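Reviewers of the previous submission asked for a worked example of the structure-prediction workflow described in the proposal, so we include one complete record here. The input consisted solely of the amino acid sequence. No template or homolog information was supplied to the procedure at any stage.
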Amino acid sequence: MVTGSLAQLQSLPKLDRSKLLEYPTLSLKERDRRWNLVRKMMKENDVHALIVIQGVRREDNPANYFTNEPIGSSPFVFFPLSGEPFAFGARDLLVVDTFMKSEAYGIKSWVKDWRFGPSGMDDWVNELKKRGLSSARIGIIGKGTFSSHSQALIANTITNAIKTALPKVTFVELWRPFVDIMLIKSQEEIAMFRKAALVLEVASEEFVWACKPGARVSGIENAFMIQLSLMELKFGL
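From that input alone, the workflow returned the following structure tokens.
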């Protein structure tokens, strides 16, 4: 139970919550900015396409940088030097339902070609053949210094299978140059980070003000988590 003085708490300034009514999003202009930077990096490394493998956490998941979709919605992204990319969508009814509702509300997906059916190694091989990349240099993001163990295992499985079918294909690991691009944030991205920070500050403020004499730890924790959950539901953060 909390028994300390509230003098310090009462002196804390209240947060300006008006900005919680703002809804920062990433535009198609931001998509073009990202894709152009990635394609510039691809040219510098002489690769004709990228295979992007999703991670298990936000910090090691490169796929949503290309798609602007939630983590888990796109396990793999194929990103060519020219032409439209495609993404293998997670075979999950909730994911598909989210896409359908977004379309109904006029929210355009950054990637036009989503493939939600079963995917296998033959799909990768056939796609490379169809695009004339049977002997090309292909970048791989998800197999390197910054990748998780599971990412690296999946990357090895995919690259080994493609090399078996198309031995002239060369793979180039591009995690590090990709991270150099991803870490430099645009104004739209910064606005989203600030909104996320404000949400956490509001939840923390509720936590602090719940610390009153006689309050139990469970009640204090609930004050924090309830606010955080409400913000997540309302604002999609």
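DSSP finds nine helices and six strands in the chain. We consider this example representative of the routine output the project will generate in years two and three.
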